[in-house]
Design brief:
The protein starts with 6 loop residues before the first strand and ends with a strand. The chain is built from 3 helices and 8 strands. A 4-stranded antiparallel beta sheet has the order 2-1-7-8, covered by helices on one side. Strands 5-4-3-6 form a 4-stranded antiparallel beta sheet. The chain has 184 residues and is an alpha+beta fold. The radius of gyration is 17 Å and the shape is globular.
């Protein structure tokens, strides 16, 4: 689906440490020439692992986002370490596809946090009871070339918080509007 200019998107995400972001981009650079990747890498400051999409809006929402923030604050989760050790293209067909990092056991904490978020949002009537499919990953670039699944040295970082991001598609705006510390 093409981005609509001015479209306000709010989602919960994990942000890597600056060192982990740099390591992720180094993993991409290491395979770039061999697989003829030409897509521009995502800026290190914008790298993230999406947790939960809270919605797409024509204009910034008011009370509904306030309610979502109040619900999300109720989530209880302990800090954990995330580790992403696979790199490859996702999707099929022509055109640009995401080149992503993902993991196996290294994303158990991410999955548990997602489950806790989904549970609270369902309880508040803000999400469907049906658990949407979720595979934790970090998009590093978009490219037409096909990068087969490649195991890489893990990109790891300690997760001590998650964030609420407001992105405005078509305008290049990306802002952290709230931080939620993990305690436990």
């Amino acid at each position: 689906m093409a981005a609509i200019p001015g479209k306000h998107v709010y989602y919960l995400a994990l942000q890597p440490t600056p060192e982990a972001a740099e390591a992720a981009l180094q993993r991409l650079e290491a395979v770039r020439r061999e697989h003829r990747l030409t897509g521009k890498p995502v800026a290190a400051a914008r790298l993230h692992v999406s947790l939960y999409n809270l919605g797409h809006f024509k204009r910034p929402p008011g009370p509904i986002m306030d309610k979502a923030v109040d619900v999300v604050r109720r989530v209880e989760a302990a800090p954990f370490t995330v580790a992403l050790n696979r790199l490859g293209s996702w999707g099929r067909g022509e055109g640009e596809r995401p080149v992503v990092l993902w993991g196996e056991e290294g994303v158990i904490g991410v999955q548990a946090l997602y489950d806790a978020l989904h549970h609270e949002l369902v309880r508040a009537g803000m999400a469907s009871r049906r658990d949407p499919p979720f595979e934790p990953h970090m998009t590093l670039a978009y490219d037409r070339a096909d990068l087969p699944e490649t195991f890489v040295d893990p990109v790891e970082w300690p997760v001590e918080e998650f964030v609420l991001i407001h992105a405005v598609h078509g305008e290049g705006k990306f802002q952290v509007v709230e931080r939620f510390p993990l305690e436990g």
